[in-house]
């Protein structure tokens, strides 16, 4: 069960990190330099 | 539709598996490690350590103590640039007397703070650090030793996240995936460095020859990619040095990591606009790696969407496409379960301190 949960978390992180590129593109126009 | 399917599948497979395999083979066959040689005593280049901060007074004393504990064998100056902080950084630094120069400037963003720090710097080598992380002993010395090779224009160290430690993943709800991703990313960077140059630095720990610095535009999102890649475009190497280690915490949850990642990927789009030369073969000496690694990551989400749409459209035409749809459904279902687990997990309390005691006393070879 623990390994399934881990797999689910890894899959979610993969999807989230990849689709962040689309959100990043959408937000590019309204971004300003700042702090990370 | 079949063309869309196969092109999309190729992009996803190439970016995440094909390119790393090619890279591993390339690094093995034609690796060119930098000719690093520690300078003789008294011959170490002068270093300016630039730390840009905004409202980090609570961390400053510990961070500066960590930097001064490095005991760099050559001349070292520490510059803290406060970008409109209103938490009195001068008081936080009062205990360090002349060991630190504080530059206070009106709020303008990190890129302008870095520009101000570099303009005031006198060292031959610039070392950049943030307030939050901690350096392992000998990190600055390891970074600077790379500059004994005249082809090296910049050096980036290795950022170790707490979630990479076994048993430490509970501190972040996305620690499992993030730890794996970061190890994969560093694996790529190490091999890109062996071939010629890595494609950006880690903002938490990197160094650059001062002569190669060009002032950053005020709205720069990824200063740690733009500044080093300008050095690469000028014909210099940017090397990854696993002996120079900094420690940090992973983002506590998916929302925080998603914001960070959005910013990083938006920054990668922005850099293409700021430095379109990166897209020109020959002009960019690491063009193939750049297209495969950085531009590839921008294309992959479109390819994932293309794969999903085309495989659904083609599902009735054969068992193969139906099987791919089933695999995608299982994968996205798993990801949805992961999202639910992330939402359900209570937000962990902020770690009391950056874990500077990570078991990393023996830095690995580059």
Mean pLDDT of chain A: 80
Instruction: Tell me the series of helices and strands of chain A, N- to C-terminal.
Output: H
Biggest sheet descriptor of chain B:
8 strands, mixed
Percent of residues in β-strands of chain A: under 5%
Going across the biggest sheet of chain B, name each strand in turn: 3-2-1-4-7-6-8-5
- Multimerization status: heterodimer
Cα Rg of chain B: 22 Å
Proportion of residues in β-strands of chain B: 15-25%
Q: What overall form of chain B do the CA principal axes indicate?
A: globular
User: What is the helix/strand order of chain B?
Assistant: HEHEHEHEEHEHEHEHHH
Helix vs. strand class of chain B: alpha/beta
Give me the count of strands of chain B: 8
The stretches of 5 or more residues of chain B where confidence is low (pLDDT under 50) are: 352-366
Walk me through the structure.
The complex is a heterodimer of chains A (36) and B (366). With 36 residues, chain A is an all-alpha fold. Chain A is 72% helix and 0% strand. Chain B has 366 residues and is an alpha/beta fold. Chain B is 46% helix and 15% strand. Chain B is built from ten helices and eight strands. In chain B, α3 (89-92) links the parallel β2 and β3. The longest helix of chain B is centred in the N-terminal third of the chain and has 29 residues, at 2-30. The model of chain B is unreliable at 352-366 (pLDDT under 50). The chains are: A mainly alpha (36), B alpha/beta (366). The A-B interface holds A 5-25, 27-28, 31-36 and B 54, 83, 109-112, 173-174, 176-178, 180-181, 203, 217-221, 254, 257-258, 260-270, 297-298, 300-302, 304, 331-332, 334-339, 341-342.
């Amino acid at each position: 069960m623990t390994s399934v949960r881990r797999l689910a978390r890894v899959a979610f992180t993969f999807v989230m990190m990849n689709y962040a590129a689309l959100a990043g593109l959408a937000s590019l126009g309204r971004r300003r330099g700042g702090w990370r | 539709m079949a063309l869309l399917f196969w092109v999309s599948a190729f992009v996803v497979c190439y970016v995440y598996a094909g390119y790393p395999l090619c890279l591993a083979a390339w690094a093995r066959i034609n690796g060119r490690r930098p000719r690093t040689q520690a300078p003789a005593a008294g011959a170490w280049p002068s270093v300016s350590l630039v730390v840009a901060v905004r409202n980090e007074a609570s961390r400053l004393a510990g961070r500066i103590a960590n930097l001064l504990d490095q005991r760099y064998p050559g001349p070292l100056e520490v510059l803290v640039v406060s970008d409109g902080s209103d938490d009195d950084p001068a008081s936080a630094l009062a205990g360090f007397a002349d060991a630190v120069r504080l530059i206070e400037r009106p709020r303008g963003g990190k890129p302008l703070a870095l520009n101000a720090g570099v303009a005031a710097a006198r060292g031959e080598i610039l070392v950049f650090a943030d307030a939050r992380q901690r350096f392992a002993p000998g990190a600055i010395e390891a970074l600077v030793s790379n500059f004994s090779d005249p082809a090296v224009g910049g050096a980036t160290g290795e950022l170790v996240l707490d979630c990479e430690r076994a048993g430490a993943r509970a501190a972040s709800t996305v620690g499992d995936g993030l730890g794996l991703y970061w190890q994969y990313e560093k694996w790529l960077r190490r091999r890109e460095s062996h071939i010629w140059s890595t494609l950006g630095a880690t903002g938490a720990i990197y160094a650059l020859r001062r002569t190669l610095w060009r002032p950053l535009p005020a709205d720069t999102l990824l200063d740690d990619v733009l500044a080093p890649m300008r050095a690469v475009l000028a014909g210099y190497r940017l090397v990854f040095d696993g002996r120079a280690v900094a420690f940090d915490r992973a983002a506590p949850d998916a929302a925080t990591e998603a914001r960070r990642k959005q910013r990083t990927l938006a920054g990668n789009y922005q850099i293409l606009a700021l430095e379109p030369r990166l897209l020109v073969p020959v002009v960019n000496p690491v063009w193939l790696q750049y297209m495969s690694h950085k531009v590839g990551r921008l294309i992959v989400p479109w390819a994932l969407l293309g794969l999903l749409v085309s495989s659904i459209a083609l599902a009735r035409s054969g068992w193969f496409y139906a099987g791919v749809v089933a695999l995608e459904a299982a994968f996205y279902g798993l990801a949805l379960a992961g999202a639910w687990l992330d939402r359900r997990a209570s937000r962990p309390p902020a770690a009391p301190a950056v874990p500077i005691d990570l078991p990393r006393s023996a830095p690995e070879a580059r």
